[in-house]
Amino acid sequence: MNTHRSLFSPRRIGWILVGCVMVLALPVMGSAAQDVTALVGARIWDGTGAEAISDGLMLVRDGRITYVGSRGDVPVPSGATVVNLNGRTIIPGLINTHGHVSGDRAELIRQLRLYAEYGITTVTSLGGDGPEGIVLRDEQSTTGLDRARLFVAGAVVTGNTVDAALAVVQRNADMGVDWMKLRVDDNLGASQKMSPEIYSAVIDRSHELGLRLASHLFYLSDAKALMRAGTDFIAHSVRDMDVDDEFLGMLAASGICYTPTLMREVSTYVYESRPDFFDDPFFRSHFDQAVRDQFQTPARQRSSARSQPYKEALRVALRNVKTIVDAGLPVVMGTDTGPAGRFQGYFEHMELDLMAEAGLTPEQVLRSATGLAAECLRMDDEIGTLRPNRWADFIVLTENPLDDIRNVHGIESVWIAGEALR
Known about the structure:
Blueprint: H1 10-25, E1 36-40, E2 43-44, E3 56-61, E4 64-70, E5 81-84, E6 89-92, E7 94-99, H2 105-117, E8 120-125, H3 131-138, E9 149-152, H4 162-175, E10 179-184, H5 196-208, E11 212-217, H6 220-229, E12 233-234, H7 245-254, E13 257-258, H8 262-267, H9 281-284, H10 289-293, H11 308-326, H12 346-357, H13 362-368, H14 371-376, E14 394-397, E15 411-416, E16 419-420
Helix pairs in contact: 4-5, 6-7
C-alpha cells in the first residue's frame, strides 16, 4: 500500500461516496439499525481541533463512523446497540508516526496488540520491516481488528555507494512499502555519515517510485541539507543546537512534518538507576515482571560516558519542539519504540508527557498524536479524527485529557474498527 496518492484517487472518491450513502441512510435504517453501535453521553474530542462535544453521540457501522455530534441532534436508530458512556471522554486512537516492529507474524501481532492496549491504534514502522509486515498491513482493512494498524518502510536504506543504496530502495519498493527511511548520523562521531551524493540519489529515486522518505538525523546542518535534497519527513529532533529562523522558514516552505522522538534520548540513560516508571500501575498493566527485571540488572544499571551527551540533547530537543510549535509548524508524535528498553505503547504516553513538559498545551499534544499525525501520513481520510467515513478507532477515557495530558493514562477501553479490544 502506498501512502503517496492523489487527493482525488479512485479509492478516496469511493470512500467519500460510500460515506455519503451511509450518512444519508441513517434516519431510515430500519432493520439495518441492528448493525449500528451508538456510543452516547460521552464528551467527544474529535481530533480536528474543534471544541469538544459535551454530551455526544457517535454512531458506528461496519467498523466506520457514520455520525458524530450532540446527542440531542439525531435520534439513536431503533435497534442499535447502545453503549452508555456518561462521564467519560472519547478521543481518537493515538498514532505513532515513528515506531518499530519486528519478528515473525505471531511476534508482530503481539507487538501491535501491545501498542493497541495502550491506546496506540496506528504505528508507522520506520525500518526493519519484512514481508510479514506487508501482509499484516494488507489484512487490516476489516472490522473487528484487534491490533494496531501498521504501515512500513522496509529495510533502512544503507550503502557506501549510490548503486548499493539504490538497490535497497528497489527491494523495498518491490516489497510494497509505504515509506523509505535513511539515516544521516555519525552517532556522535562514532561512525561515518551517509554522503549527500548518496542520500540525494535515494530521495530522488524514492520520489520517482511514488514513495515518500523519512530521514533519521541529529544535527541542524544535516536537517537543512536533507530538506534541500527533498526529504519528506524529519524522523527525529534536531538535537545539537537550537533551531534558527532559516530552519523554520525551510520547514514552513516544505510543508513536511517533524517528529521529536524525545523518548529515544531518555532510553539512552534512564536505566542508569531503577526508573520510577517501573512502579507505575499503568506501565505494569501490560508488562510482565520478567521483561521489567531485564532492565534492573547491574549490567543495565550503570552510567555510561557515551550516554551523557544525550541528556543535553534532550534539553535541546525540548526547546526545539516548543519553538517549532510556536511557529505554527506541524510536530507529530513519534517515539522510536521497538528496540530493547524502548517499551512499545507505554513510551508513547511518556512522549506525550514530555511534549507537555516542553510547553505544549494538552490539546496541542493530542493533536500531534491524532488528526495532525494522520494528515502528515496522508491518512486523514481514514484515521486520526472522529468524523464520518473514518475508521472507528478511538479510546474511552475516565477523565478529560484536555485538562491534563496524563489523563490519557485512564483508559477504560480501546476500540479499533468499531469494536472494543477483546
